[in-house]
Design brief:
By secondary structure, the protein is mainly α. The chain is built from 3 helices and no strands.
Length: about 100
């Protein structure tokens, strides 16, 4: 079961790092269910339960930070594009300012 948890953790980290948010959501749920299944097998008061819960919270917190960072980066990119578009024109489109030389 531990190897299954490690596999899910690895998949979740890969999904979060590569911005596959549907996979992050699905894997988060799968990982939570897998941890619950492990916890049900442990005797009451077993310190491994606390450790498993802490690891799950740490991992999901990391995935959240990765998602938030990706969103901030995407927003910054969109703002740069919007700003650049204000000062650009399409090819062949006359500019706002024109200069005419008298010959």
């Amino acid at each position: 079961m531990a190897s299954h948890l490690e596999q899910l953790e690895k998949q979740l980290r890969q999904a979060a790092a590569s911005r596959r948010y549907k996979d992050v959501s699905r894997l988060s749920k799968e990982l939570g269910e897998a941890v619950q299944a492990v916890l049900r097998t442990l005797p009451k008061g077993d310190p491994r339960a606390r450790e498993a819960g802490r690891k799950l919270i740490d991992l999901l917190s990391w995935a959240l930070v990765m998602t938030q960072a990706a969103r901030v980066t995407c927003l910054a990119d969109l703002r740069r594009v919007a700003t650049a578009n204000r000062y650009s024109r399409r090819c062949g489109e006359p500019g706002r300012l024109s200069v005419q030389l008298d010959a």
